[in-house]
Amino acid sequence: MNHSLPDVQCYLNGVYGPLVEAKVSVMDRGFIFGDGVYEMVPVYGRRLFRFDAHMERLERSMAKLRIDPTMARAEWLDIARRLIDGVTADDQWLYLQVTRGVAPRNHVMPQGIAPTVFAYSSAAQLLMPEQRHHGAACITARDFRWERGDIKSTSLLGNVLARQISADAGATETIMFRDAHLTEASSSNVWIVKEGALLGPPKSEHVLEGVRIELLRELCEECGIGFNLRPIAEDEVMSADEIILSSATKEVLAVTTLDHQPVGHGALRGKPGPVYARLYEAYQRAKRLQSI
Q1: Angle made by CA atoms 33, 39, 41, in degrees to the nearest 5
Q2: What's the predicted TM-score (pTM) here?
Q3: What are phi and psi of 225, to 5 degrees?
């Protein structure tokens, strides 16, 4: 695995410069406490995908942490455009981060300090057709993370530990359960298919409101696929017709094995299913139509 930083420009507190030279104070609350929020926006053909939806979630996360708005959305867009233009690849991941800022170490939220604003874009590592053909292997685990999964916080140690469970098993993701009900994966939302309908967990403080939740609602309506957000018991996941992951980087991805057992039934057991196939094609159409 290549651990070198991408040779790109970044934005840090009003200044553009090489990512490898960017520095923040060791007393930044993002470094000390993980006291910050972030977003990653897909860029396809140098066009931002569902930028407003990502910005709305960033603003929600900032409000929940009482971090004052730093810039208008138009300013964010100007920064994004400049960073995207500096990367040679047409498909990119745009990363945005806001921390509370620099202050003496104290658990109490300080007032009147300037947030630290950081952004960069780099070439996207898209899934290969072979990976989509075979689908993903996943492992299950208890959801041991904190109670505010609805905040897209930079405090991601719980997610790191959860993802390492699947990495150690040679799997793609760790699908988690709390009180015997599905929450999400370490870095993805999780869906199941039952009798042709797409089902996902309801909105709660335990689940990040993924940008793709509303997108998949729209795609299901377009494709005539049933859609419902409701509590999903663990045994429903284990017996699902299909399991699907969604995230900015995975788009939608079929899960074909769970805890080393094939997903699904009959001839499609252990293979990407028909609902996934229709949603993937619809997602590709949305990328062409919903980017700016």
Answers
A1: 160
A2: 0.92
A3: -100, 130
Per annotation, catalytic residue among 23, 64, 152, 287: 152
Structure tokens at 23: 């520095």
> Mind listing the pLDDT tens digit for each residue in 138-186?
999 999 998 888 899 999 999 999 999 999 999 999 999 999 999 999 9
Query: Measuring CA to CA, how many Å separate 112 from each of 69, 185, 228, 279, 286?
Result: 12, 36, 43, 46, 41
Q: What is the DSSP string of 82-111?
A: HHHHT-S-SSEEEEEEEE--B--S-SSPPS
CA distance 48 to 166: 30
Residues 64-74: tens digit of each pLDDT: 999 988 889 99
- Give the integer Cα–Cα distance in Å for 81 and 78: 5
**Does the active-site annotation cover 23?**
no
Least Cα distance to 165 among 182, 187, 181 occurs for: 187
Which positions ≥6 away from 81 have C-beta within 8 Å?
none
Q: Residue type at 190?
A: V
